[in-house]
Here is the input.
Amino acid sequence: MSELKGACIIGQSGGPTSVINASAYGVIRTALDSDCITAVYGAEHGIKGVLADRLFDMSKEDARELELLKYTPSSALGSCRYKIADPDVDDTDYKRILEVFKKHDVRYFFYNGGNDSMDTCNKISKYMQKVGYECRVMGVPKTIDNDLYGTDHCPGYASAAKYIATSCMEVYQDARVYDTGMICIIEIMGRHAGWLTAAAALATEYGAGPDLIYLPERDFDMDKFLADVERVYKEKGNCMVAVSEGIHYADGSFVSEAKTSATDGFGHAQLGGLAARLADVVKQKTGAKVRGIELSLLQRCGAHLASETDIEEAVMAGRAAVENAVAGITDKMVAFERGTVNGRYACKTKLLPLTEVANAEKKVPQEWINAEGNGVTHDFIDYALPLIQGEPKLPKEDSLPRFARLKKVLAK
Amino acid sequence: MSELKGACIIGQSGGPTSVINASAYGVIRTALDSDCITAVYGAEHGIKGVLADRLFDMSKEDARELELLKYTPSSALGSCRYKIADPDVDDTDYKRILEVFKKHDVRYFFYNGGNDSMDTCNKISKYMQKVGYECRVMGVPKTIDNDLYGTDHCPGYASAAKYIATSCMEVYQDARVYDTGMICIIEIMGRHAGWLTAAAALATEYGAGPDLIYLPERDFDMDKFLADVERVYKEKGNCMVAVSEGIHYADGSFVSEAKTSATDGFGHAQLGGLAARLADVVKQKTGAKVRGIELSLLQRCGAHLASETDIEEAVMAGRAAVENAVAGITDKMVAFERGTVNGRYACKTKLLPLTEVANAEKKVPQEWINAEGNGVTHDFIDYALPLIQGEPKLPKEDSLPRFARLKKVLAK
Here is the structure.
């Protein structure tokens, strides 16, 4: 394909992760160093920043601060949850995007996000093709949920998984110090896919993790759950449970949202999350000391426990997006393929059509969940363990994190 | 004083911390290396293990595993919350303790804990004196709450403070990525003293922390709180708040336990903690997106964020207890005195009479809290910052924590 000169835009979308900025760094650094790319813009709050023509000139940033993006959690450029219309129904946004692209001579568009963001990316790609505006569009994957279709795993997942496993190991130490026994219920993110909750099994693999793990890939049965917990508590005097926020009954209703149920005794106003609610039910049933812990936002921004493998792969994904686009490729998402080099885990990038990945969801395979539906098999451990390896050398200032400080100079 | 030959017991008591085992290591290692001390026993679940004559022979442990105690959170020997009787009212326990001490020729007793534990330690010390049984008794301080009397700070506090400050900095990044604004309320431990909650100000000092901080040292006013939050949210479009679990109204009732109030609209069953409840009130008042996060057990067992200074001082406290006891001193608690060496923070041990520290509580000085009662002054930063310094080289196994694995061989 012919060389295409022009500016590029990088946008971040959806929920933050510990390494989404590492991907942004991969895009920005590679783009700044590219001869084809004449300007590198960061969109403020993803596609919303494009629509508002609020683009930061990344060439104005200090190189060292850009480098620090590798260790800065959350979305440094700002994120959005903006659902773009179907262009056949309403093309207002698309016309505006084209206008802004033309104004800044944008010929490369990189969008970093999860399922919904790949849908946005796909629609923009197809629109630009339709109107004949030459712009190479590449999706850069990101999600702690690890539910993107077609890729072995997603940047962001491993660091959250490592945070979850480490925190479970620590809480395990804490939640059994008294001789009086305790039941501890840990609520982990993942509305539809159980990848994050399954990561708690890594803690168990290393001797200090949950006895029971419930994923949204299986229907939740409160009676079975209570029986499981009682059995373990009786046997061991303690019990640690990991539950996905997305666990639901057979009828599809979320356990976290159930208003009243004869089985679980929920007749409460809805304060607190799932962990608090389950803790309440278990307490009523067993009379034991019970504590519910919600890992909340901590698990998706815990960059101090990031996996070096994850950081490196996140940068690689961003770099691959730019390199492939400059080489003439468009309308793809960068994905990961797992392999081995000298018998050890290795990961390389591949490209998937945006149409294929948009809105598709990858769940934990049923065969990786045990027959009882309260744990995962060793297949999961084999899958997840290589991903969390490696300790990054985290930049610190007075023993606290030194995150990137961007100037965010708006392009004229 | 004369040389005293005999066995020693180390017991852990009260809530765990990230470094209580580092103090245990300081005691155990120094005692094992001492010529005077003929056997080193770890009491299972603190004083309860003494009463039950369940003592672990620490000489049976692998030296490397003992060393790993420095990086293992929670109480490795097991803890208890056992309130020992007044010996003048009921001396049953004391007679039993004496019996066990005599059986194993225990001449040194080291008790590692907070306020209540120092009370236990003090009572045992006085009883042994009264009955004329020669046993040197030393308290080793421990508490994330930092509320022990007479010591500059307590082992365990700094690591929890570092966990809190780091987590706040990360959540700060996360809780402001969208252009839609958000209010985030973080609940931090500390029932009576605000030292831990104040640590969130370290995050603010480094550019990414709470806008508002409420300690239990000041009466809480819900109307004032809501006005504070609304003001900041209006000004900045985001607001981050740190609250101590122990905040209470002027009448002394805990905000976390208030059943119904015209002001706060609490008419709910009590699920979830303070953060969830305050989030609910703020949401009703402002209509903003609000998230409550409880740091829960994570903050007291987050050894992966331990302060190296804290670890070293915790070991030093344990070592000092043994060295002083062997040198003939008894009936004291090891405490810390802050000084400077070449203009830099330095810490040395001193000894306080157990009677003085038992049950006394040290709170955040009123003059370190701002006039509005919603933040701390720079005096606090100057106090806390040196304590959190230094990154321990954490032992890992496949990138997960490698905690000490004790054999716990019971003494005959």
In short: The mean pLDDT of chain B is 94. Residues 59 and 116 of chain B are 29 Å apart (CA to CA). Chain B touches chain A through 70 residues (CB under 8 Å). Chain B has 14 helices and 13 strands.
